[in-house]
């Protein structure tokens, strides 16, 4: 089987990633504690692409969750599918990156990155035939952009012949948290061009337009945007997760 290891970095990456796991767990008939509740053999035929089978017929995501502060991890753990993930695969620091690309790439992130690579290595060892990696992150913050690109570099060094795909949320002026987002994104894009095989650029502004114009939502939340992203990710990965007949 051609397995894929999923990595989610930073607050945005973890929120999108968690939504993605909710969506594909539902599609494969996996409940919030990892037990199969589906009704079709097709759901299980290629389930090992994204899930490994643990004791007691439980399915565990091949996911590594990374952040430089503990808050995001706590909210993932307390979310509806928080019990699904392997506890050892939560890797986090204490200080945060303060929306600073250099902190994520060179200082705080660099101190944590070896721990993350160890967890990735452990996930890879459970695979029969690793297909590649996928990363969800944003390019506007400090962790997703700075540490996310550092992680891609490290994984590229260790697994040069495996595919690297990213789902990267681009900053946009209308939907902006901080003034330094363009700098963080500029520093990241160079790294993505060098080290990824495929990058899906996600534009928050376009997502808001879909919410306003198509879905007719008056006050879209980040949860609504993340739902759109997870639906797109589900569609993109469908041909990898289900047999092609």
TrEMBL record:
GO terms for cellular component: microtubule. SUPFAM superfamilies: Tubulin nucleotide-binding domain-like (SSF52490). PROSITE patterns: TUBULIN, TUBULIN_B_AUTOREG. One of its GO terms (molecular function) is structural constituent of cytoskeleton. Keywords: GTP-binding, Magnesium, Metal-binding, Microtubule, Nucleotide-binding. Residues 47-244 form the Tubulin/FtsZ GTPase domain. GO terms for biological process: microtubule-based process. The keyword Cytoplasm does not apply. It holds the Pfam family Tubulin. Dimer of alpha and beta chains. A typical microtubule is a hollow water-filled tube with an outer diameter of 25 nm and an inner diameter of 15 nM. Alpha-beta heterodimers associate head-to-tail to form protofilaments running lengthwise along the microtubule wall with the beta-tubulin subunit facing the microtubule plus end conferring a structural polarity. Microtubules usually have 13 protofilaments but different protofilament numbers can be found in some organisms and specialized cells. Tubulin is the major constituent of microtubules, a cylinder consisting of laterally associated linear protofilaments composed of alpha- and beta-tubulin heterodimers. Microtubules grow by the addition of GTP-tubulin dimers to the microtubule end, where a stabilizing cap forms. Below the cap, tubulin dimers are in GDP-bound state, owing to GTPase activity of alpha-tubulin. Belongs to the tubulin family. This is Tubulin beta chain.
């Amino acid at each position: 089987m051609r397995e894929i290891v999923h990595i989610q970095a930073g607050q945005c990456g973890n929120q999108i990633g968690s939504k993605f796991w909710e969506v594909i767990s539902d599609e494969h008939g996996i409940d919030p504690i990892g037990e199969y509740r589906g009704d079709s053999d097709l759901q299980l035929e290629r389930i090992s692409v994204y899930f490994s089978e643990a004791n007691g017929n439980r399915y565990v995501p091949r996911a590594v969750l990374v952040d430089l502060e503990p808050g995001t991890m706590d909210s993932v753990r307390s979310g509806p599918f928080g019990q699904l993930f392997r506890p050892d695969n939560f890797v986090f620091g204490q200080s945060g990156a303060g929306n600073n690309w250099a902190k994520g790439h060179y200082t705080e992130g660099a101190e944590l990155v070896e721990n993350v690579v160890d967890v990735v290595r452990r996930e890879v060892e459970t695979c029969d035939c690793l297909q590649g990696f996928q990363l969800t992150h944003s390019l506007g913050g400090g962790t997703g952009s700075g540490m996310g690109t550092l992680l891609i570099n490290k994984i590229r060094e260790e697994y040069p012949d495996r595919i690297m795909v990213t789902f990267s949320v681009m900053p946009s002026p209308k939907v902006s948290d901080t003034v330094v987002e363009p700098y963080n994104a500029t520093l990241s894009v160079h790294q993505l061009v060098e080290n990824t095989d495929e990058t899906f650029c996600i534009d928050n502004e376009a997502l808001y337009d879909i919410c306003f114009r198509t879905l007719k939502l008056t006050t879209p939340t980040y949860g609504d945007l993340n739902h759109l992203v997870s639906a797109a990710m589900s569609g993109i990965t469908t041909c990898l997760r289900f047999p092609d007949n």
